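Morning F.,

Quick status update on the modeling queue. The single chain you submitted on Monday has been processed. Sequence for confirmation:
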Amino acid sequence: MAKVCLLLLALLVLGSLSHVEPSENQRRLFGHAADRMKVLHRMAVNMISDFENSLDFDDRVELSNNFLLSNCFSDSIQAPSNREEIQKSTVLKVLRVSYQLLVSWEYPSQAFSGTFTNSLKPNAITERLTDLKMGLRIIIMHVTGQSAVEEYLSAPAVFDESFVSDGTPGKIYSLMACFRRDIHRVETFLRVAHCRVSPKDCLP
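Structure tokens below.
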């Protein structure tokens, strides 16, 4: 249902081109995407919190002592890594990277979505990733002015299923932490793109 609502909303916005100035259409599309990314980021934070609360004290200590946010499978995606690189990137570039990250996590998210979380329904995160992927595709169509945008979309990062096949807390936690990091990155990318398209929406 959420997927249908998001698609209908985006199509309604695009369908109003003859009544609304292009800048207004872009503002609405980016605004909706940015708002949904905030929700997904909050879901990722809650998911890790739920997982940590499900562990006993010794497991928590071991994770905190040994965990390093490194070697995420999505590191193969060439994305802006700091504020300066983000500011130098075009709107289309940050949209392409955001789309690539969302698509890359669509399958791996099934490894933890609804399994280790108490505050989320099964597959809630995977479903929201799919919705956002569809929404970003429509935004890229709008920005490029083309109905076929495959040439602008990069392939997702390759995920090794064996990484979580044993289901150890350390590996699951690492996967969740990488996901939270990437979702935060996408939220930042979309916020920057939104502000580029509609600076008035980002005034203090």
